[in-house]
Design brief:
The complex is a heterodimer of chains A (about 120) and B (about 120). By secondary structure, chain A is mostly beta strands. Helix content of chain A is about 0%, strand content about 50%. In chain B, strands 2, 4, 5, 9, 10 and 11 form a six-stranded mixed beta sheet that branches. In chain B, strands 1-3-8-7-6 form a five-stranded antiparallel beta sheet, with no helix packed on it. Chain B has no helices and eleven strands. The chains are: A mainly beta (about 120), B mainly beta (about 120). The interface between A and B is medium-sized, with 27 and 28 residues.
C-alpha cells in the first residue's frame, strides 16, 4: 500500500446521507485518483487530480464530489445522489498523470455499504 | 465493451504447480501494460510493467509476456505458493492525450492456491 492511507476501512451509510472517504499520501505525488471496484468488473475512474486545486471527472463522477486543497489529501464525498454507492473504493497516486507511464500506487481501500 | 478482457475469471491450482493467466486488449494506440496483484480487501500492487517494445518481464516467480501484434499478454506464475492466492489485474495504458493517459482495467482473474 506504500505511503497511501485510506480511512475508514469499513463505512456504513443510511440512504440519503452524504459520507466522506479520506485519502492521504506522503509520497509527494502530484496526481491522485479515486476508483470504484464492483465484483466482476474492472476498476472504474471516478475523479482524478493532477495538481492541487484542480480535478477532473472520470467515467462515473455522477453522485460524487472531491476536493484537492492540499497536495497530500484527496477526499471523496459520496452524496445521496449516488443511487448505488455500495462498493469498494480505492484511492491511488502517481508522480504525475503524464501518459499513464507513471505507476499508480493504491491505498488499502474503503468498503462502503448502504443500509 | 471493456477494452481489456481477462481469462479465466477464476482458477484453482495446487500449491507448487504453475499457471498462466491471459489478457487480451483492444486499446490502440498502446503505451504500456501492467499486471497488478490484489489481495482480498486490499489495494492492487504492481507486479510488472511492459512497454510495446518489450516481450517479457519477470518479477521473481511472476513472468509476464506481451505480443503487441496480437494484443495479448500473459502472466505465468511458477511454483505457486499459498500467498499467490489473489486477484490478478491486467491494466493497459494509452499514450498521453490532452493532459494524461487513461488506464483501462481488466476485471481480474481470481487465483486460489490450495495445499
Amino acid at each position: 500500500d506504500g505511503g497511501i492511507t485510506q480511512s475508514p476501512k469499513y463505512l456504513f451509510r443510511k440512504e440519503g446521507q452524504n459520507v466522506t472517504l479520506s485519502c492521504e499520501q506522503n509520497l509527494n505525488h502530484d496526481a491522485m485518483y479515486w476508483y470504484r471496484q464492483d465484483p466482476g468488473q474492472g476498476l472504474r475512474l471516478i475523479y482524478y487530480s493532477q495538481i492541487v486545486n484542480d480535478f477532473q471527472k472520470g467515467d462515473i463522477a455522477e453522485g460524487y464530489s472531491v476536493s484537492r486543497e492540499k497536495k497530500e489529501s484527496f477526499p471523496l464525498t459520496v452524496t445521496s445522489a449516488q443511487k448505488n454507492p455500495t462498493a469498494f473504493y480505492l484511492c491511488a497516486s502517481s508522480i504525475s498523470a503524464a501518459g499513464g507511464t507513471d505507476t499508480q500506487y493504491f491505498g488499502p481501500g474503503t468498503r462502503l455499504t448502504v443500509l | 465493451k471493456n477494452q481489456v478482457e481477462q481469462s479465466p475469471q477464476s482458477l484453482i491450482i495446487l500449491e507448487g504447480k504453475n499457471c498462466t493467466l491471459q489478457c487480451n486488449y483492444t486499446v490502440s494506440p498502446f503505451s504500456n501494460l501492467r499486471w497488478y496483484k490484489q489481495d482480498t480487501g486490499r489495494g492492487p500492487v504492481s507486479l510488472t510493467i511492459m512497454t510495446f517494445s518489450e516481450n517479457t518481464k519477470s518479477n521473481g516467480r511472476y513472468t509476464a509476456t506481451l505480443d503487441a501484434d496480437t494484443k495479448q499478454s500473459s502472466l505465468h506464475i511458477t511454483a505457486s505458493q499459498l500467498s499467490d492466492s489473489a486477484s490478478y489485474i491486467c491494466v493497459v495504458s494509452a499514450p498521453r492525450t490532452d493532459s494524461w493517459g487513461k488506464l483501462q482495467f481488466g476485471a481480474g482473474t481470481q487465483v486460489v492456491v490450495t495445499p
